[in-house]
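Appendix B. One record, verbatim.
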Amino acid sequence: MLVYHTSDQRFEVPDVLHSRNALDFGKGFYVTRLREQAVAYADRFLKVGSDAILHVFDFVPNTELKIKKFDAYDEEWLDFVCSCRSGNDDYMQYDIIEGGVANDKVYRTVDLYMTGIYNKEQALQKLVYETPNNQLCFITQKAIDKCLKLVEHNILKHG
């Protein structure tokens, strides 16, 4: 199955070293099953005058790896994302984590919950109406090496 990653940098082999900390599922290499989501992400580079590179990978799951999957924006997902965004390293027990992205609308709810403006019930009531999009976070280099093979690069030009 194909998965996608958009960046302003072209590379042949992804790694976990160049990731930011405190993201939805922790530090790792993020891809999506949704091409349109990856293309939409390119706007953040194109708007500032940079080209964006859409990397296309063949993803072959490996049963030897420890994989966590969230199927909904539910209490478990909310607790996990808040923990990761707070800098905790609970995510390190997995090789790959898959679930919904805290996009702008979802992130606002998560942020209001994390700052105490919403309690958990209020946050979950808001999240229940959201349809999860998709992200896979490769936590370990082993997971990348075993599961991802670069298929092609597509340059998305600004202007």
